[in-house]
Amino acid sequence: MKLAVAAAVVLCLSACGGAKQSAPPPTLSPSVASSLAAQSDAVASALAAGDSCRASTLAQRLQRQTIGAINSGRVAPALQEQLSSAVNQLVVRVHCVPPPAPAPAKKEHRHGKRKEHGKKHEGDE
Predict the structure, then answer these.
(1) Residue 78 within any structural domain of the chain
(2) What is the CA 66 to chain-centroid distance, rounded?
(3) Which parts of the chain register pLDDT below 70?
(4) Buried b / exposed e across 22-43, counting CB within 10 Å, b at 16+?
(5) Structure pTM?
(6) Is 77 helix (H, G, I), strand (E, B) or coil?
(7) The predicted structure's pLDDT at residue 95
(8) Could you give the angle at which helices 2-13 and 77-93 cross, rounded to 10 degrees?
(9) Selection from 12, 31, 17 nearest residue 79 by Cα
(10) Residues near 95 by Cβ (< 8 Å), separated by ≥ 6?
(11) Of 20, 60, 78, 93, which has the fewest Cβ atoms less than 10 A away?
């Protein structure tokens, strides 16, 4: 899962390569790219530590920050769909699985002699 997170971030935060283009490829500002990459790394770290609930919370925060960056115009239009799609997929894939609840404490039973009232035993009379 950590590899998938890292791949999604690299894919989204880098400019599209491949065919030669006359115009420079769209980019993200260094501050936006750095912030989103750091948040993505935090998600990956939480997953690596086995803390899926924290990873889920961080992924949702990353999603909100991504939407905010897009809405404020800090993400080039050519990257918006790819970036938001990758972040949304991350949120969907990271599930909070709470640790199992501790076993309930065993109640101690007192093992004492019970008195039997009203019963007559053989030979009693």
Answers:
(1) yes
(2) 16
(3) 1-22, 108-125
(4) eeeeeebeeebbebbbebbebb
(5) 0.64
(6) helix
(7) 92
(8) 170
(9) 12
(10) 52, 56
(11) 20
At 115 the three-state DSSP class reads coil
Residue 53's domain comprises 2-14+30-93
The answer to whether position 112 is within a domain reads no
Is there a domain that residue 101 lies in? no
- Residues 45, 91, 16, 37, CA torsion sign: negative
- Letter for the amino acid at 62? L
DSSP 11-36: HHHSPP-SS--SSPPP-B-HHHHHHH
The model's pLDDT over 4-26, given as tens digits with 9 standing for 90+, comes to 554 455 455 554 455 555 677 77
For residue 105, tell me if it sits in a domain.
Answer: no
Domains held by the chain: number: 1
